[in-house]
Each structure stands twice: as structure tokens, then as C-alpha cells.
Amino acid sequence: MSGQLPSSMVALPRQGIIILTYVLAALELTCLFMQFSIIPYLSRTLGLDSVSFGYLQTTFGVLQLLGGPVFGRFADQRGARAALTLSFLAASALYLLLVASCSPALPGVFLLFASRLPAALMHTLPAAQMVITDLTAPTKRPTALSRLGLCFGIGVIFGSLLGGTLSTAYGIQCPAFLAFVVTLLGAVLSFTCIPVTTKEASVQSAHQGGTSVFDLKAISRLLLLPRVLPVFLVKVISGFPSGLFMVMFSIISMDFFQLEAAQAGYLMSFFGILQMMIQGLVIGRLSTHFPEEALLRSSVLVFAVVGLGMALMSNVFHFCLLLPGLVFSLCALNIVTDSMLTKAVSASDTGTMLGVYSLYSCAYGRLSFLDNI
């Protein structure tokens, strides 16, 4: 699939658009993990306990839960440029409010909760997945999506390191301000370099004459497709325990593992390195030798073994021993289900499908307060 999509202000070849999409995803995820690394310490500084922090995470999850499917349809109907630009602008608003919450002269707790509101429109990763899906052949899709997962690893490594290091050296507001600047840059790059749409002309014209962005029936129709619902249920049920653990990991590292901000950043960087190695060197090769169904079953089996080990662990060393298995399961499950779900729907609905698919991760944030009750 080669050629050029001339509908961007800065004309890029198809491969250039894919590379830029990887870069934008890495930038957004780096900023996101910078935020994750300082939020628990900022909440403690503002006087919030673990239960209140759970409600803060729940607010973030609920808003993404509500916004994900609608954002997916918006991406399908309005195109990649509008979707990515909107997501980066929402992220910059979140980080600006986060910077303001660090000021002693302002109502910090109110601004901290208010900073969660733009989360409803922060869906850069599903938008990037849509672009990659639209611009790659189905046979090459698992490999292309696994490369997108490398961006997640980069975000975990550099975001966690920068968040912990900058907050220790220059204050807790420094990572939030840097994230604000970077996401504004991402919005500019999206608006100037990403084409209006990455879909074929016939597909896009069909969607322009379709239903509203807020048509819930069209969204639920995709979820109930015979080839979609079983995969979605496997993902939700098998990934829920580890997903809930990862949502509350910042509090677990601070309270259970007794780690400082910089130490928690190093641990998350180790997680990111493992993900880059497994997703870049292992999953892609396995996907060329084994069917997707076999990889899905193996990821669920490893999840079960790792879950038992996590129930018995007592310190951070035990967690580090379990981390490779956890990362393999997460990577295999995400890549395989992404590929299977996008193949199960038409090209005009890939963005909506990925938005519906993001419901499972948002639900973890919605229920994160259970870890503290």
C-alpha cells in the first residue's frame, strides 16, 4: 500500500504519515506517564487520601468511558486530522489545569478534579490505531500495531523517568508544564501534517452520508456483531484483574512497595523496556508463525499464572520477577484483539470499533476505587 495522501497541509507519503503517527503516539504517551508519575504525590500534597485518589482515577475513567465510542465515530466521520488535533488540544487543557492545581494560591483540589474533564476527548492512541489500520493491509496489521505498541514502551520509559526526575529536581508542576507544551506541539503537527482522512474515498463518502456521531444504536451494533462480542468479552474478563492493578499501581508502589517518586519511575521504566523488547521482538515474530487464536489462548493462560503469583507476592522484587509474564500477556492480548476486531468490521467503522474497544480500559478506571474500600 504505497502512494501519497495529498489532503494534508504538508504533503507526506503514506509511510511518512505512519511514522508521524508513531511519533505523535509516543509524545502523547510520554506526557501521559509523566502525569501518572506525579498525580499520587500531588494528591497527597493536597491532602487527599487513598479513597479520594481512587475517586479521582474513577472520574478519569468514567469520562473516557463515555467519550471513547463517540470519539471513535467522530474519527470515522471527520477524519484523522480532526481526531488527533482534538485529542491533543484536550490533553493540553488537562495539563494546563494540572499546572494550575500545583499553585498554593489557587483551589488545588478543585482544579485537580477539574483537570480530569478533558479526558473525555483524550483518545490519541485509538486515533493512531485507526490511522495504522486504515493505511496497512490486513495481513501486515498485527506487525504494524505491534510497532505502535513500541510507542507505549517509549512513553512508559521516558514519561516515568522524566516525571520522577523533573518533579524531584524542579518541583511537581514541572512535568505537567512540559506535558502542556509538548501536547500543544502535537496539536500543531496533527493539524498541519496529518491528512484530513486516511480512509479510501469511497469509504469516506459513505460515512459522510451516514448517521450522527452520537448515534448509540450504530455504536452498539458493532459491539453485538458475532465476530466482535466473543473477542471483546475474552479481553474484558481476562484483562480485568491486571488492568485494575495497573490503574492503581502508582498508589501500590507508594504505599505497598514504599517507593519514592524517582524509584517508582525507574520501576515503570523497567516495565517499558520489557514491553518494547517483548512487543517489538517477540509478538511480531510469533504472529507470523502462529494463528491469532493460539496467541490469544496463550495470553489468557499466562495471565492466570501471573495473577496467582501477584496474589502471593510480598515485595517489589517478587513483582519484578512476575513482570515479564504480565507484559507478555498484555502485549499479546492487546495486539491480537486489536487485529481481530478491526478485521471483523468494515473499513468505514475501524475508528468506532477501536473506540468501543477502549471501553474495557476505561472501565478499570471507573472501578479503581474498589482497591481502596
UniProtKB/TrEMBL annotation:
Keywords assigned: Cell membrane, Ion transport, Membrane, Symport, Transmembrane, Transmembrane helix, Transport
GO CC entries: apical plasma membrane
GO biological process terms on file: monoatomic ion transport
Gene3D superfamilies, per database record: MFS general substrate transporter like domains
Pfam families given in the database record: MFS_1
Membrane-topology annotation of the record: Multi-pass membrane protein
Molecular functions per Gene Ontology: symporter activity
Residues of the Major facilitator superfamily (MFS) profile domain: 14-373
Subcellular location: Apical cell membrane
Domain of life: Eukaryota
Entry's transmembrane regions: 20-42, 54-75, 82-100, 106-128, 148-170, 176-197, 228-252, 264-282, 294-310, 316-336
InterPro entries the UniProt entry points to: MFS, MFS_dom, MFS_trans_sf
Family: Belongs to the major facilitator (TC 2.A.1) superfamily. Organic cation transporter (TC 2.A.1.19) family.
Role this protein plays: May act as a transporter of organic cations based on a proton efflux antiport mechanism. May play a role in the transport of chloroquine and quinidine-related compounds in kidney. Plays a role in the regulation of lipid metabolism.
Protein name: Solute carrier family 22 member 18
Record organism: Rattus norvegicus
Lineage, top ranks: Eukaryota, Metazoa, Chordata, Craniata, Vertebrata
